[in-house]
Structures are given as structure tokens and as C-alpha cells.
Design a protein that fits this description.
Elements: H1 2-12, H2 14-33, H3 43-49, H4 57-64, H5 80-95, H6 97-103, H7 106-137, H8 139-142, H9 152-179, H10 184-194, H11 197-209, H12 215-237, E1 239-246, E2 249-251, E3 254-256, E4 260-266, H13 273-289, H14 296-304, H15 310-331, H16 334-343, E5 346-347, H17 355-380, H18 382-389, H19 394-400, H20 402-425, H21 435-440
Antiparallel strand pairs: 1-4, 1-5, 2-3
Helix pairs in contact: 2-9, 2-10, 5-6, 5-7, 5-13, 6-7, 7-9, 9-10, 10-20, 12-20, 13-15, 15-17, 16-17, 17-20, 18-19, 19-20
Length: 441
């Protein structure tokens, strides 16, 4: 009843209804483009050949783009070049004074950073598009001929189309963020992941019906999946609240302050970004190695970076822990929080304002980030363990845990919270059970 009432409330708000419909329309355009094949490619040959890559890094890349890679679609690169460019810009912000200066210049600096990110997206898309064209042109990559007429003209055409399509997808994401609901880039990634879920679920059900898996074991697996989803939700929303006391101030006949507020610090402050960052970096070796399909040495290195290898799992987990700390340091600055509290007359009980407050917040942030980062890494590499020790199909294992589940839960909760805020602004009950209580407070 509460869900249906919340949906009816959405329909009562014209602006929110238009934003949701606009978002759905642009996501439909993205899904439509993922079914348009690159000119000069035999789509049926690619589809049959990429089934053998369902459990490697190409299969994971195909998961993020909603099957566009398996269909040799014009959207084969998806939004991943933009994510890679964002990673590079943020890394430069930590070591380059010029980028650091832009980050502190407000809206003008943000626009320049966005512009540099777009330029970087084009450069990375050109490189990855070239790698895709080389892979498609090489029969050894797929075990059969997928491009009947390879050559210079096909390479140039494929690179131009794939790069332009990536820029178009980036534009769609920015439109969704500006005029729709939710973060457009994240929603594009999420919709690409969810597009593969029905087929993976059917494949898992068929394995049970054909007798290759016991149905009792499948029930246990599904129960474990529900538990993991609950753990991911808890990891996403769990916070550590630091009490802040404000001194009373008398201005004229009014008394200000004197109450107790809280600084909410999430256990997973970085959200899903460490997963996306680490995954984008892990895509780079396979892109580079795709230029050497005939080299045995390069293929041995590629085997080490296979999605189901232990080396990949360990490196991926360590990168997630690193990027969790890195992005947390960018998203939450204890020094700025301490300075703001001092200017507003606030203090943490038992802690001196200024440097001591900064160190206190930084210590708490460091302690709660470590278990959050480890939990994030364990959940991210869980599909590797499932495919190794449990009889779970590779496609379904990606939804059982790992990057897919983390992205879907994080983006879903973020979008739901934005819808919730629109409802609460107009005094409607949202989807959360405590929405009315929060509104009253």
C-alpha cells in the first residue's frame, strides 16, 4: 500500500513526473543504440564468438555496456572512457597544483575540469576504439571471421563511429543529470547491468531444470544472495555520527544555538566510485594487449589479467582498498569540517576546536574506512570465488555479488533518495518508512 501510494504521489507532482519520464526516454535511446551494429561487422558471428568470453574481462566489459560489446554495437565502449578520464583528472588533482587550483575555484573551475574530462574521454575513446577495431579484424581473437572486409577503411570508420557514440552517451548522461532524476552516468551503467539480469536468471533456472544443479542447493544460493544484498545495503547506508555541540548566542531578544547536531560519516563514504575506478583501470591492460593478438608472451600476460584468475582478484581487491581511501580523502576533508565548525561556534564535546578536532575526525574517518574498504573489496571479488568453488553460471555470479550488485544498489538508493527529496519538499510521504518521521524532525 505504501509503495502504490508513493507512486501515486509521484504522479501528482508534474515536475517530478516529467523528470522521471525524461530519464526513462533517454535510457531507452541508449538501449536502442546498443542494438545497432557497427557497419562492416557480421553481428551473428560476433554474438556466437563472444559466448566463449562470458567469463573473462571482455565478458565483464560486455556486462557494463548491457551486451553492446557482444553485439558489436556502436555503443560498445559505453561510458567507460568517460569514467577512465574522470579517474585521470582526479588523480591529477592530487598531484598537480594547476588542477588543485581549478578544484578550488568553484563553478568556473568545475566547468574547466569537466571540459578537460571531455577532451580526455575523446582521447581514451579513440584508443579503445582502435583496440576494438583491431580485435574485430583479427580472426584469432574470436576464432572466426567477424569482419568480412577488414582494412584501413573499416578501421577508420569503426574508430570514428565508436568515438562519436561514446561522446553521444556522455551527452545523454549529462542531460539526465541536469534535466532528469539521478546521476546520469551512473544510471547508464546501472541500466546496462540490469539489461543482462533476465537472461542470466533464465540461464541459472535452466541449469536447475536440466539437472546439472540440485534445486535445494539453488534455494540456498538464492537465500545467500538475498543476505548479500542486505549486507550491501547496510554497507551503503551505515553511518558513524559525531555529536557537535553549539554554544548559545544571544542576539537581541533571540537565543541561537545551544542544540546538539551530528556529523554523519558514512562507513563507505566513497560509495561505488572505488569499484568503478578500479574496474576502469583493470580494463586498460586488456585494451593494450588487444594490439598484440599474435604474441604468445602478451597472451600469457592477458591470462594473468583474466577476470576469473586469482591474480586479477587480488589486484582488483587491493585497488579497491586504495581507491576507497583516495576518493574518501577527496570527498570528505576533515580540515574544512573543523574550520566550518569553529566559524559557526560548534565543538565536539571533550575535543578542543581547531587542529585537535581535525585530528579527531580524521582518526575516526580512517578507522571506519578500513573495514568498509575491505568489505567492499570482498564483495567485489566474490564472483571469482563463486565461479571457482560453487556451481554458479558466470553471468549470474556477477549479480550475486561483485561490481554489478554494488553499482545497482548504490545507484538505486541514490536515485530513490532524490525522488524522496522531491516528495518530501511537497509534503508527500516517500518510499522510506522513516520519511514522515524525518520530515517532522
Amino acid at each position: 500500500m505504501k509503495l502504490t501510494e508513493s507512486i501515486r504521489n509521484i504522479n501528482k507532482i508534474p515536475e517530478l513526473r516529467q523528470r522521471i519520464l525524461y530519464t526513462l526516454l533517454l535510457l531507452f535511446v541508449y538501449r536502442l543504440g546498443s542494438h545497432i551494429t557497427i557497419p562492416g561487422v557480421d553481428a551473428s558471428a560476433v554474438a556466437s564468438a563472444t559466448t566463449s568470453h562470458s567469463n573473462d574481462l571482455f565478458g565483464l566489459f560486455d556486462l557494463f555496456v548491457g551486451g553492446a560489446f557482444a553485439r558489436a554495437s556502436i555503443f560498445s565502449l559505453g561510458i567507460m572512457p568517460y569514467i577512465s578520464a574522470s579517474i585521470i583528472i582526479q588523480l591529477l588533482g592530487a598531484v598537480t597544483p594547476y588542477v588543485q587550483k581549478l578544484q578550488k575555484e568553484g563553478e568556473e573551475g568545475r566547468q574547466k575540469i569537466n571540459q578537460y574530462t571531455r577532451y580526455g574521454t575523446i582521447l581514451i575513446a579513440l584508443l579503445q576504439a582502435w583496440g576494438v577495431s583491431v580485435n574485430l579484424s583479427s580472426p584469432s581473437s574470436f576464432g572466426k571471421v567477424v569482419v568480412p572486409d577488414p582494412g584501413f577503411f573499416f578501421t577508420i570508420t569503426a574508430v570514428i563511429i565508436l568515438t562519436a557514440s561514446t561522446v553521444f552517451v556522455m551527452w545523454l548522461g549529462e542531460l539526465i543529470t541536469e534535466r532528469g532524476i539521478g546521476n546520469g552516468i551512473s544510471l547508464i551503467i546501472m541500466i546496462g547491468i540490469l539489461a543482462r539480469f533476465p537472461a542470466s536468471l533464465v540461464a541459472e533456472a535452466q541449469s536447475v531444470s536440466f539437472g546439472s544443479k540440485n534445486w535445494i542447493v539453488e534455494i540456498v544460493i538464492m537465500a545467500l544472495m538475498v543476505a548479500i544484498v542486505a549486507i550491501v545495503v547496510i554497507l551503503t547506508v551505515a553511518t558513524r555520527r559525531i555529536p557537535v555541540q553549539h554554544a548559545k548566542r544571544v542576539v537581541g531578544r533571540k537565543v541561537y544555538g545551544g542544540g546538539t547536531q551530528y556529523i554523519p560519516i558514512k562507513i563507505n563514504t566513497a560509495g561505488v566510485m572505488p569499484i568503478i575506478f578500479a574496474q576502469s583501470i583493470m580494463f586498460l591492460p586488456s585494451t593494450f594487449l588487444s594490439f598484440f593478438p599474435e604474441s604468445e608472451a602478451m597472451q600469457k600476460v592477458a591470462a594473468a589479467f583474466a577476470y576469473d584468475s586469482w591474480f586479477y582478484a587480488v589486484v582488483f581487491g587491493l585497488m579497491i582498498v586504495f581507491f576507497t581511501y583516495f576518493y574518501t580523502a577527496i570527498a570528505f576533508n576533515p580540515k574544512e569540517v573543523a574550520d566550518t565548525m569553529r566559524r559557526q561556534g560548534g565543538f565536539i564535546p571533550g575535543v578542543r576546536p581547531g587542529k585537535n578536532t581535525e585530528e579527531f575526525i580524521d582518526n575516526i574517518l580512517t578507522r571506519i574506512t578500513l573495514p568498509g574498504a575491505i568489505a567492499l573489496a570482498v564483495i567485489a571479488i566474490l564472483p571469482t570465488f563463486l565461479t571457482k568453488f560453487v556451481n554458479v553460471t558466470p553471468g549470474f555470479a556477477n549479480f550475486f555479488g561483485g561490481t554489478s550488485l554494488l553499482i545497482v544498489v548504490s545507484v538505486g538508493l541514490d536515485t530513490l533518495q532524490q525522488v524522496e527529496s522531491h516528495l518530501m519538499m511537497r509534503h508527500y510521504d516517500g518510499f522510506m518508512k522513516t520519511a514522515k518521521a524525518r520530515g517532522r524532525r
